[in-house]
């Protein structure tokens, strides 16, 4: 854990608590997110334009969880989102000049929900886009080019749930059947397609999918929960698969899945919190995947989100299924399913 | 953005890098601008292909560029089709004529295969590009998808070559799940026999035991190759025994590596399918109502046909009300006109069970099947389990805190005789709470499950069955799994701490329900 101080000499900012752990560098993170993308010619920023919509979702959500959403310009963000809706298909592109995809469609819907601005777009067109991507076996293409993945099943039901249009649109039974066919006998986990190895990120998508479709009873909670809690390593961080390195984003995926399944108490929250805090960049703000690495906006959301789920003070509650502030989910009247603690 | 270590750089280096990046940004923007203009103009030509290559080689995640390349390929293919259509289609007569002279025949076939070869060269070009991109980023979803899209379009796709490609990639990274997924896809296309894949797996595992991906691949192949007739184990007992031997050798090679231990726990499990139908766990009825507990949650009980047969009639039970949030226990307030002298049975979909009359003067009947079903175990398999347990116990002599050995020996003990070894397996869990404290909560819940499994298995032999259930002496219990099984009791006696903790979520009893109705 002290690797942090080894790689980056302490800046003497009073971040270190007496137990050797760190304190949340709240304002540094706010600044980090606020400044993200202000320099349009920044190399990293430019090279990641193919996922800009998700980048904005990560940033707005993290700021909202920190109660600082007003630091971003609501109007220009909504204008950006609107420009990305494809007039032909109804789906959203990551940014102008790119093609629409389910991944960015969900991000766009999430951003609009955060700003309570769903009425700004053609919602029926989005529904048509999502419905049109469902296949006869219940699975979903990500776009018209035919890639199938359980991530897309999650994106589809999450988008429709947020739009309040799950009823009478897609074939839910078939969608459920497909996701269930991706469950592995060995560990109760899920992969991206039938037969694919279990992976924490995809498990999150599938557990989230069952939470949204109110079918958590289909999971083998004891088997899957055990495999998930075994992701916690001595550093307190969680990995995505056996014998892999810990990572802040996997920490979120495992943590959120365990929370949905009512098994958060199967890992050490205290140690996980220490790990997440050790991944802060105390100089620039932001979180990295692992202690001592470069921070980015993606891991910053999952760092903040993880801390919120663990009950860290000063942060708004986050919904584990949709990875959005709970008050927005309440405002929309959505109730993703969660299992009680045994 | 994963695994990029933050390094301190000098001012000079930073400046140099900044300039370099500014150049890259400019060339990226220029290329993207050009690509978008050309796309709008419908220019899906060779220039477009070379423009996209520049960016994709550096950043294969820009999915739109792959889409554009596919549009280019489709455009080229449709042009080929047009060309083909302009060729004269040979009639039967002409074919006859051609047969006569060898020279003419060659000419004709040259004409016919030309477009096909052209198409093949487009496909090859795309495949080469994905290969180059996968060298840059072997985890690029886009590059992998593009590859399979191209192969699906190519009637002359060489699937065998793809299998070899996987072999090569798995040598670089034996855990890349993209490669394994792709391997499953192409081995099916190439019709590689499952037995051959199993050999591949065995070789991979022999090279490195710590390969969860390979164990996983194996777990998919075995149930098909060595089916288990009773469906109470993942594969045939004979094969299971061999697998257990192999996996224990692997696990003992490095007892701290988890891969093999996960596989071992799966081998020891029931092999039950996730989508299997729920079974009747407990049922009790009297003249005015009935309660039903299922062994797994099933919120949509109306989908299952429940029928009570006895007293010379069949009653359809269709007014079920849930007793818990999960849908594991249900009540039904119908009149049955229960007759003491008749025998009754209960249907739940295709399962039928016989009910036993309540003892003494009590009116009504019940059924109960404890959660830990006994699975049959052949002599040979039992002997293997005992050998394995002994090996674990031997290892524990030297390494008493070995987490995986502690857990596995408890699982083996339960597989051999779960009631006789109950106390010892709980001792192992208590020890695990200390040596693996991160997962303390898990071991506590597991101990509760095992305790309830043991108590529920003994319950039918107790004097008060099924009216009273008493576990007041289990003071360590912090949760009450299998609570739905107790719905047939009138009185449940729990340790006071647990009762307090459960509060409102205390399981409902048959007596409670009678009072309420």
Give the tags.
heterodimer; A: 342 residues; mainly alpha; Glycosyltransferase; 2 domains; 15 helices; 2 strands; 45% helix; disordered N terminus; B: 517 residues; alpha+beta; Immunoglobulin-like; six-stranded antiparallel beta sheet; four-stranded antiparallel beta sheet; elongated; transferase (chain A); metal ion binding (chain A); Terpenoid_cyclase/PrenylTrfase (chain A); repeat (chain A)
Describe what you observe in this structure.
The complex is a heterodimer of chains A (342) and B (517). Chain A has 342 residues and is mostly helical. Chain A has two domains: 40-172, Glycosyltransferase (Alpha/alpha barrel); 183-341, Glycosyltransferase, CATH 1.50.10.20. In chain A, 45% of the residues lie in helices and 1% in strands. Chain A is built from 15 helices and two strands. Chain A has a two-stranded antiparallel sheet with strand order 1-2. In chain A, a hairpin with a 4-residue loop joins strand 1 (318-319) and strand 2. In chain A, helix 10 runs parallel beside helix 12 (248-260). The longest helix of chain A is centred in the first third of the chain and has 14 residues, at 52-65. Chain A starts with a helix and ends in an 11-residue tail after the last helix. The relative contact order of chain A is 0.13. In chain B, 32% of the residues are buried. By secondary structure, chain B is α+β, with helices and mostly antiparallel strands. In chain B, strand 3 (306-310) and strand 4 (313-317) form a beta hairpin. Chain B has a domain at 280-368: Immunoglobulin-like (Sandwich). Chain B is elongated, with a radius of gyration of 33 Å. Chain B has helices at residues 11-40, 46-58, 63-86, 92-100, 102-136, 141-153, 159-172, 177-189, 194-207, 212-225, 237-253, 258-268, 379-398, 403-417, 422-435, 440-458, 496-502, 510-516; strands spanning 280-286, 289-294, 306-310, 313-317, 320-322, 329-332, 344-348, 351-354, 356-357, 365-368, 468-470, 491-493. Chain B starts with 10 loop residues before the first helix and ends with a helix. Chain B has 18 helices and twelve strands. Chain B: It holds the Pfam family PPTA. Chain B: It is an enzyme of class 2 (transferase). Chain B: InterPro entries: Prenyl_trans_a. Chain B: This is Geranylgeranyl transferase type-2 subunit alpha.
């Amino acid at each position: 854990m002290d690797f942090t101080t080894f790689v980056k000499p302490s800046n003497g900012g009073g971040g270190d608590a007496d137990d050797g752990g760190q304190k949340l560098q709240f304002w540094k993170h706010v600044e980090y997110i606020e400044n993200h993308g202000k320099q349009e010619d920044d190399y990293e920023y430019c090279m990641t334009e193919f996922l800009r919509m998700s980048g904005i979702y990560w940033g707005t959500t993290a700021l909202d969880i920190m109660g600082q959403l007003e630091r971003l310009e609501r109007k220009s963000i909504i204008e950006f989102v609107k420009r990305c809706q494809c007039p032909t298909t109804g789906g959203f592109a990551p940014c102008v000049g790119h093609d629409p995809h389910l991944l960015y469609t969900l991000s766009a819907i999430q951003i609009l929900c955060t700003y309570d601005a769903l009425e700004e777009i053609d919602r029926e067109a989005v529904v048509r886009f999502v419905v049109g991507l469902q296949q006869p076996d219940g699975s979903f293409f990500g776009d018209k080019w035919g890639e199938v993945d359980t991530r897309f099943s999650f994106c589809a039901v999450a988008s429709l749930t947020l739009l309040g249009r799950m009823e009478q649109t897609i074939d839910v039974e078939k969608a459920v059947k497909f996701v269930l066919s991706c469950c592995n006998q060995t560990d109760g986990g899920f992969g991206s397609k039938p037969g694919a190895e279990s992976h924490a990120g995809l498990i999150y998508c599938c557990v989230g999918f069952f939470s949204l479709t109110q079918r958590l009873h289909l999971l083998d909670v004891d088997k899957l929960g055990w495999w998930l809690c075994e992701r916690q390593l001595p550093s307190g961080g969680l990995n995505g698969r056996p014998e892999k390195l810990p990572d802040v984003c996997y920490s979120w995926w495992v943590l959120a899945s365990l929370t949905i399944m009512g098994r958060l108490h199967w890992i050490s929250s205290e140690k996980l919190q220490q790990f997440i805090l050790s991944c802060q960049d105390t100089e620039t703000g932001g979180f990295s995947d692992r202690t001592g690495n470069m921070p980015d906006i993606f891991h910053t959301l999952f760092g903040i989100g993880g801390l919120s789920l663990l009950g860290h003070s000063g942060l708004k509650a986050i919904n584990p299924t949709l990875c959005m502030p709970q008050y927005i989910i309440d405002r929309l009247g959505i109730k993703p399913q969660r299992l009680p603690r045994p | 953005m994963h695994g990029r270590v933050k390094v301190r750089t000098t001012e000079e280096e930073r400046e140099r890098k900044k300039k370099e990046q500014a150049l890259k940004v400019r060339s990226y923007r220029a290329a993207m601008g050009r690509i978008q203009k050309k796309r709008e103009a419908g220019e899906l030509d060779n220039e477009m292909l070379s423009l996209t290559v520049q960016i994709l080689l550096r950043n294969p995640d820009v999915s739109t560029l792959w889409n554009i390349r596919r549009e280019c390929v489709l455009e080229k293919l449709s042009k080929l089709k047009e060309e083909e259509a302009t060729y004269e289609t040979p009639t039967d007569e002409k074919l006859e004529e051609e047969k006569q002279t060898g020279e003419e025949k060659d000419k004709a076939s040259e004409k016919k295969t030309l477009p096909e070869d052209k198409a093949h060269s487009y496909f090859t070009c795309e495949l080469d590009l994905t290969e180059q991109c996968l060298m840059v980023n072997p985890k690029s979803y886009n590059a992998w998808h593009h590859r399979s899209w191209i192969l699906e379009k190519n009637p002359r796709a060489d699937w065998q070559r793809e299998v070899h490609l996987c072999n090569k990639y798995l040598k670089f990274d034996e855990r890349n799940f993209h490669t394994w997924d792709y391997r499953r896809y192409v081995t099916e296309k190439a019709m590689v026999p499952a037995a051959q894949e199993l050999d591949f797996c065995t070789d991979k595992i022999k090279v490195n035991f710590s390969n969860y991906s390979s164990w996983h691949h194996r777990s998919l192949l075995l149930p098909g190759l060595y089916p288990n007739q009773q469906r109470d184990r993942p594969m045939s007992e004979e094969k299971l025994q061999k697998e257990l031997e192999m996996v224990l050798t692997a696990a003992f090679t490095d007892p701290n590596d988890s891969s093999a231990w996960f596989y071992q726990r799966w081998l020891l499990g029931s092999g039950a399918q996730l989508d299997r139908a729920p079974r009747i766990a407990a049922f009790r009825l009297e003249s005015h109502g009935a309660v039903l507990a299922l062994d797994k949650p099933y919120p949509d009980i109306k989908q299952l046909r429940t029928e009570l047969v006895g007293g010379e009639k069949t009653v359809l039970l269709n007014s079920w009300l849930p007793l818990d949030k999960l849908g594991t226990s249900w009540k039904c307030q119908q009149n049955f006109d229960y007759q003491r002298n008749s025998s009754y049975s209960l249907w739940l979909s295709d399962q039928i069970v016989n009910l036993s009359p309540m003892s003494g003067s009590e009116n009504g009947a019940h059924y109960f099947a404890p959660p830990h079903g006994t699975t049959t175990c052949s002599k040979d398999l039992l002997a293997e389990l005992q050998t394995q347990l002994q090996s674990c116990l031997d290892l524990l002599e030297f390494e008493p805190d070995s987490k995986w050995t502690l857990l596995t020996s408890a699982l083996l003990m339960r597989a051999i005789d779960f009631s006789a070894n109950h106390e010892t397996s709980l001792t192992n869990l208590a020890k695990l709470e200390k040596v693996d404290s991160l997962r303390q909560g898990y071991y506590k819940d597991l101990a509760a499950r095992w305790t309830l499994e043991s108590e529920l298995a003994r319950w039918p032999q107790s004097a008060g069955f099924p009216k009273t259930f008493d576990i007041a002496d289990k003071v360590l219990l912090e949760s009450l799994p299998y609570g739905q099984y107790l719905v047939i009791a009138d009185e449940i006696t729990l340790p006071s701490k647990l009762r307090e903790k459960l509060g409102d979520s205390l399981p409902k009893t048959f007596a409670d329900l009678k009072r309420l109705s």
